Amino acid sequence: MKSIVEQNTLALSGNEAVAYAAKQSDVDVVAAYPITPQTIIVERFSEYVANGEVETAFICTESEHSAMTACLTAALTGARTFTASASAGLALMHEMLFVTSGCRAPVVMAIANRALSAPLNIHGDQSDSMAQRDSGWIQLYVENAQEVYDTIIQAFRVAENHEVLLPAMVCLDGFILSHSLENVNVLPDDVVRKFVGIRQFPNVLTHEGKMAPLKLDPENPMTMGPVAFPNYYFEVKRQQEEAMKNALKIIPQVHDEYAKISGRSYGDGLLEPYSLEDAEVAIVCLGSTAGTVKTVVDELRDEGAKAGLLRIRTFRPLPVNGIRKALEDVKVVAVMDKCMSFGGYGGPVFHEIRHILYEAGKHPTVVNYVYGLGGRDTSPQQIRKIYKDMQKILREKRVKNPVQYLGLRE
Amino acid sequence: MKPKEKSWKEISIAAVCWKPSTETLTGDWKTYMPVRDLEKCTRCLLCVLFCPDGAIHWKPEKGDIEFDYNFCKGCGICANECPTKAIEMKLV
Amino acid sequence: MESEWKFTAKDIAEKPDLFMSGHKACAGCAPATVLRLIMKATRGPTIVTTATGCMEVVSSLYPQTAWAVPWVHTAFENAAANASGIDAALKILKKKGRVKHEHVDVIALAGDGGTYDIGIQALSGAVERGHDFLFVLYDNEAYMNTGIQRSGGTPVGAATTTSPAGTVLPGKLEPKKPIADIMVAHEMPYVATASPYYWRDLITKVRKGLEVEGPAFLHVFAPCPRGWRSDPAKSIELSRLAVETCIFPLWEAVNGEYQLSPPSKVYALAPQKKKPVKEYLQMQGRFRHLFTPKFEKLLDEIQRITDLKWQKLLKKCGMA
């Protein structure tokens, strides 16, 4: 039975696709502050508000810190909330990101990935969201505008799921995705509305000695955001980790449900392997670069090389088993990092891939390419070089430089 | 014996408080306690209003106030503010 | 601007405490009294949000809570941003038919730390956006919860742990930031000052603040015996002396129009009744060094500044 819904094709940039998806998702409160390259998201959304196309309270807060705060308390009051940021704005929210996940508020945020200062740089790299990978937020990285549209809608369902109840950030590369126009197939309003539904609340035990829905409601007073001493803080944090474990199950579920309606899927929702089945050399990367890599992989395959790609869509929670399985039979893996971890011997994704392969029965040689910092362009030729390097490692059975910088003027 | 603290599986999520503060009897903090001269007291209720801990209650059915020594920390504000000096702070 | 509500001490005393006993505040804590009185002034469903600080910590020690109303704390600098989110959510959810209450009052509570200094951005922003909430500042004139460090609200000559009185310096040199006047300059509907000794005035002002449609700001004087090195039994007396010396005058500004409140009007009409600041300062250990030969000149300076500010206020109230 054909369950795929008929869709319209719109010409949307990544930012516009984000705003459109949020528009359709019955968001109650948007509290946001503009920052390049996310500005179009909030501008477009405020147009929807001005034209009465959404029933949303739109708060132009005086800073990102207050934006995340207002989203948090609005969510705790029962609202579905959405915001967007990047770079310094996300960094300014840092404190509140931890508070939001600690309070189990299902805020959804779009991040138009941009480099962090200093020096000031408005272009795209992933250092802003990577710096928040410990904050307890779900992190999803998209490859194109179509995917960001699909993922924002899915993010509300994942975040609000009672087994999860964690905030989620959907990351799209600044300028490369945020500002590039693509054909985006959009679902009808009513289909999206039905998919996201109305927020439901799990019950918790309150000081009145009864179970009540988790929200600020004079009907059932409860105290949120208390001070927890060493005798209880640890347990609360362990609960958050359990929620992340549950998200590994829920994200594919929501993804599959959405795929049935839209006809679009991205691997299993956690990881997207591309030409990986018999690959000897493979790249692991996040975001829009995967698109370029796919093109190069196709060319290499035509030339007879056994090249593949593993795109990580869900970075938090990290799909440990999935990654181990996907890379099991690969001989050499090059992890591409659009972020540096200074003094840390390679980039963050490199760290994570290497560490989860530590316990795997057999694992590939893993090397790192830090690239694209401050929006430095990455060409297919440069990707080819990575595969060439990997094939050399395969032949010579040794690694000269585990960590390299792609496109850096040495 | 003190009851065992709950495990992470036993508590509700999001650290919502599940006990009222009235389970802590802050009255055992005090060194001095307020004692009232019933004849001097005019039931003006200032002590009820000023007590930081709400440890003095107005009982309309009795037409009188009542000290709740379970929560009185012995600060002495009531004695200091009483217009007729009807309250004296005495060593516990 | 009048409030319809008329009440007696008995009426207030009979209302159950929504800020419950068993909280962990120090003995003689005036902010705790202030909180009790504020909660007595509520008129219906109310949500309270508090900034990090003494009142937040002593009332929400997990798993216990002293709050009988819905309450949330998130961070130090954002009580007003908390209130913004709650206000926006309530309004939109009401519109969508998901909130059953006709109206829910929102109260944001913060100490001088969370208001004068780290909190001022969020406060200014929330007021500019016109959210419907009452912001109450309980001013104990230092960052008490972290150990008595100076704040923008610490008065001249006060010794704190980051502005101690030493052999060279006599405590804090900078004047107390005129936070309530700053809020009046925001052209907001209602700003007022209050002191717990004048409980009727305080409760009335809280009620007025709640009744205002839009933002309201209440600056409440709240002595801290621990930080001020004063007798715990004298906390309420100090809140009276502050008004009697005109160090902390009581007034309201309704849409920017200043009006002196009855307890302070006394000293405008009968200036001879005004008490010298010495009487107030000598009760507090944080001013002890001002009563030594080395720094006693500062006493005259404090009296001079107090008189000057008092005259300025009288002018604004049309009572010069």
Q: What does this entry look like structurally?
A:
- The complex is a heterotrimer of chains A (about 400), B (about 90) and C (about 325).
- Chain A is an alpha/beta fold and about 400 residues long.
- Chain A has helices spanning about 15-25, 40-50, 65-75, 85-90, 95-100, 125-130, 145-160, 190-195, 235-260, 290-300, 320-325, 350-355, 380-395; strands spanning about 10-15, 30, 55-60, 80-85, 110-115, 140, 170-175, 180-185, 205, 210-215, 225, 270-275, 280-285, 305-310, 315, 330-335, 365-370, 405.
- Chain A folds into two domains: about 10-200 and about 235-260, 3-Layer(aba) Sandwich (Rossmann fold), CATH 3.40.50.970; about 270-405, Rossmann fold (3-Layer(aba) Sandwich), CATH 3.40.50.
- In chain A, α1 (about 15-25) crosses α2 (about 40-50) and α3 (about 65-75) packs parallel to α5.
- Helices cover about 10% and strands about 20% of the residues of chain B.
- Chain B contains two helices and five strands.
- Chain B has helices spanning about 45-50, 75-80, and strands at about 20, 30-35, 55-60, 65, 85-90.
- In chain B, a hairpin with a 4-residue loop joins β3 (about 55-60) and β4 (about 65).
- The relative contact order of chain B is 0.27.
- Chain C is α/β, with parallel strands linked by helices.
- Chain C has one domain (about 10-315): Rossmann fold (3-Layer(aba) Sandwich).
- Chain C has 13 helices and nine strands.
- The longest helix of chain C is centred in the C-terminal third of the chain and has 20 residues, at about 295-315.
- Chain C is globular.
- The mean pLDDT of chain C is about 95.
- Chains in contact: A-B, A-C, B-C.
- At the A-C interface, β3, α3, α5 and β11 of A face β1, β2, β3, α4 and α6 of C.
- β1 (about 20) of chain B pairs parallel with β2 (about 65) of chain C, so a sheet runs across the interface.
